[in-house]
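Checklist before submission:
- one chain only
- standard amino acids only
- sequence pasted in full

Submission:
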Amino acid sequence: MKLSFSRFFYVIASIVGIVAIMHFGKVILVPIFFAMLFAFILYPIVKWLKKKGVKKVFGIIMTLGGVFILSSGLLVLFSAQIIDMASQYSNFLDKLRDTLEKSVKFLNDKVQIIPDIESQTILDKLTNLFSDSSFLIISDTVSVTGSFFSFVVLASIYTFLILFYSEHLTEALTRFAHKSKRKSFIAMLREVQQVGQQYFTGMLLLILVLGVLNTTGLLILGIDYAFFFGFLAALLAIIPYVGTTLGGLVPTIYAFISFDSYWYPIGVIIIFWFIQFIEGNFLNPKIVGGNMQINALFSIFSLIAGGVLWGIAGMILFLPLVAMLKVICSHYEELEPVASLIGERITEVRKASEKSFLEKVTSKLKR
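Returned file contents:
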């Protein structure tokens, strides 16, 4: 065995350079990567409209317009519940104070190993916190809302341009490969596109199913704002491992504060645990399938690295990006060890037998 220090240095320098570019180029790269993945999802629709005789420009505008209308409708539903919750702000604070007083009294009476807690001191600090930070909350909300809409506009423009120049971009990228390898290179690009498309399409369908299940469970329990809490938890499920827990924690705290009985928050925990069990064992494998084929170690590493570099956007983006990186590495002999390191070992029988719901639907549509 021989160790090439020059090659090792180049690898380390390349990794450091890529991480630096991703860190300092966050403002530019995040909307571009989101736009690329959205373009992967919308490309089949644009292609289908083009086959029906619709010009490419109008097909892209129609597709993005449909997405905008659907997103606006969902945003209106969410906004209505948020506004209603905001109108109950003072009642919520009263319930929070009452719950805090009961909790402090319980700790003082039942737990003797800690000194008594002054409930009035905590309540005064809580009141001052909400009163002093009210202006900051409003200003921060306006700032975040403005940043979000500017991000959406920028990502929409990028998505339009990527879809419009899709053939040109494919042809330009193909020129990087040798003439004898261009068919393989095009096949690699197609596979990368399919991984991104199947993952995000599967996640959107999974969000819809989880949102309906969460909302139904909360309605059965009699929890207010069931639609908001249900679909908020479904949206947070995009973040692997952490999102589902956070999504269930919010309605649990609300039920704990809003109801006198402890059975309501316990019921919320049971419902979300049951839905998470169904999602992990049945829904996710059937809807998303084994398209990612990333082992648990690199899945968690992608989650942490994405959160450190790009925040929540990175936690959402890094998993499909690592899956696409695995596809690229698997097509180059020098990078095959990287693909093996990232990937999950599964037998050929399992590969052949385990098809996701989306793969089955896609194969039927092609017929």
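Reviewer check: Residues 22-164 form one domain.
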